[in-house]
Amino acid sequence: MSGGSASDDVPNPVAVLLDLSGAAGLEKKSPDDLRLVGEFFGERQDILTRVAVLTPSDAANDLLDSGGAFAAATGIPSRPSLTAAKLSSGCRRVGRGLAVSRVPRPCPVPSHGAPLVHRSYLHGSAGPNTGKRRPVVGNLLAAPTLVGLPAHLVARDARLA
Amino acid sequence: MPVFTRMRDEGLVVTVDGDYTAGELSRAGERGLRLRRRA
Fold first, then answer.
1. pTM score, two decimals?
2. Residue from A7, A8, A10, A146 whose CB has the most chain B CBs within 10 Å, to mutate
C-alpha cells in the first residue's frame, strides 16, 4: 500500500469509480489482495465522497459483499445486500455506508459496447431517463459511500463513450 | 500495468483491464488522486 495521508494530497473530496468490469481473475483474488485494495480506500475516506465499485460478474460481486475482505477493510459500515428485485424497483435508497448488490441469476447483458457510466453513477443525481435502469442506478447512488454493482446492471450511455 | 485512471465528470475513474495486483491498483489510484489535486 502506498503510504501517507491522502488528505494532504487531495484537499477536496472526490467521487471514485473503481471499474473492475474488465478485470481478470477477480474471483481468484485472495482475501489479502482484496483487503489491501479495501484498505487503500478505507485510509482515504476523508477525501472520498463516494466509492462505487463496478464488478464484472455476479461471482466477483460476491467478493465485495459486506462480509468480505474488501468491504471489511474499507472500514465503512455495512448495509444489507440488495437483491436484483430491489435494484429493479428503482426506489431503493440506502443510507451512508456500504451497499452491495447480489444478483441471483444472470441478467440480460447488452450486446454492444463496454460498460459506460452516467455521471449520476458518480454524483448520485438522477440522469436523463434514457433507459429503465438509469433511475435505478441514480437512486441507488444517491446516498451510499461505497457501492458495488455488477456491470450489466449499470446503465449505458453512448454520449459518455 | 492494466490499471488506468482518468477524471470524468469531476470524478476519478480507476479502470482495471486484465489481471492486476493490489499494489498496481493502489499506485494507480494514488496517481489519479494526485493528478486530480493538480487539475
1. 0.61
2. A10
Whole-angstrom distance, CA of residue A57 vs CA of residue A90: 21
Residue A126 domain boundaries: 7-160
Is residue A129 domain-resident?
Answer: yes
Query: Measuring CA to CA, which residue among A64, A28, A58 is closest to residue A146?
Result: A64
Domain membership flag for residue A2 = no
Task: Indicate whether A101 belongs to any domain.
Answer: yes
Number of domains in chain A: 1
What residues does each domain of chain B span? Answer: 3-38
Please answer yes or no on whether A122 and B17 come within 8 Å at the CB atom.
no
ipTM above 0.90, yes or no: yes
Minimal-distance CA residue of chain A relative to B39: A10
Closest Cα in chain B, distance from residue A140 (Å): 17
Averaged pLDDT in 10-residue chunks for chain A of 161 residues: 47 74 80 86 77 63 65 59 37 32 33 34 39 34 41 37 24
Residue written as grid cell 468490469: A21
B39 in reach of chain A (CB within 8 A) = no
Is position A114 within any domain? yes
Alpha helix (H) ranges present in chain A? 31-42, 58-63, 69-74, 84-89, 119-123, 133-140
